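Reviewers of the previous submission asked for a worked example of the structure-prediction workflow described in the proposal, so we include one complete record here. The input consisted solely of the amino acid sequence. No template or homolog information was supplied to the procedure at any stage.
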Amino acid sequence: MLISFVVFSVFGYDIWALVCYLLIFVAVCMVFDLNEGLSPCTVLVTHILATKYMSFDVVKNEATFDAYRNIRRNIFKYVYAEKLETYKGISGQK
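From that input alone, the workflow returned the following structure tokens.
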């Protein structure tokens, strides 16, 4: 979020600011091996770009939505893990 705040403050809320953000953020993720955080953080930043402003309330709202989505996904994985493994065994997937 700090990277997006700095980039949007310097370049404004434009597509080129998103490109600059992605160039910096992808490099940071690769250096620190944080690849699994790339997609969710980029989604949050595109939502902020769409609103054209960044405030604590906007960031809190987006982070809350992201946390809810992650909890729901993890519950789904837990509940259906056995069925998924069975399906993979039947279909021959690894």
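The chain is about 80% helix and 0% strand. We consider this example representative of the routine output the project will generate in years two and three.
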